[in-house]
Amino acid sequence: MGLMFRLFCSRPMSLMAFLCLHLCLLCSISPSQALKDDKNPTVYEILQQYNFPIGLLPKGAVGYELENKTGRFTAFLGNKCSFSLEGSYQLRYQSTIKGYISEGKLRSLEGVSVKVLFLWLNIVEVTRSDDALDFSVGIASASFPIDNFVERPQCGCGLDCGNGQVRMIGKNPFVDSY
Fold first, then answer.
1. CA 66, 101, 60: angle at the middle one, nearest 5?
2. Per CATH, the architecture of 52-177 is what?
3. Mean pLDDT, consecutive 10-residue segments, the chain of 178 residues?
4. What are the Cα distances from residue 168, in Å, to 125, 128, 162?
5. Structural domain boundaries of the chain?
6. Is 82 left (phi over 0), alpha (psi -120 to 50) or beta?
7. 70 φ, ψ to 5°?
8. Cα(117)–Cα(125) distance, rounded to whole angstroms?
9. What is the pTM of this model?
10. C-beta of residue 54 within 8 angstroms of C-beta of residue 48
């Protein structure tokens, strides 16, 4: 390939020379350099820009789409994901989570559910109120301190992933119904 490259690049300055020059430049940039130059925020940084903690999504989100004008938001996880928190809250994430995001509010959510007693209920809205997050399943809602969401849970094990300590999520005995 080196000889062929030299043959094509040895011609007078032309389209071929221009292409060879760009090929040389592209080959000299390593993938890690290309990633460092990427200015796109991560999905977790997008959550923070809208005043949400990163712990709303589990570790391993692989991308997102955001329509700035409408707030239409789609987050992509590598796979479906589920885990328990404190052994009493079971959460399930689909591989794609959709909804609309605005300052302190996620609405029309699809792809996240919580197990209440023996039923799986879709979380349809998350609202930030000062230092608390309110989660709505449509007919009922529950509020939790925002400090419970500073860490990203891990699929399969939540916040208890081999370190032997379970980080307790603050319980709120009050559940509001509409």
1. 65
2. Roll (2.30)
3. 43 39 34 46 96 94 95 95 79 96 97 91 95 93 90 86 51 40
4. 23, 20, 15
5. 2-37, 52-177
6. beta
7. -100, -20
8. 20
9. 0.69
10. yes
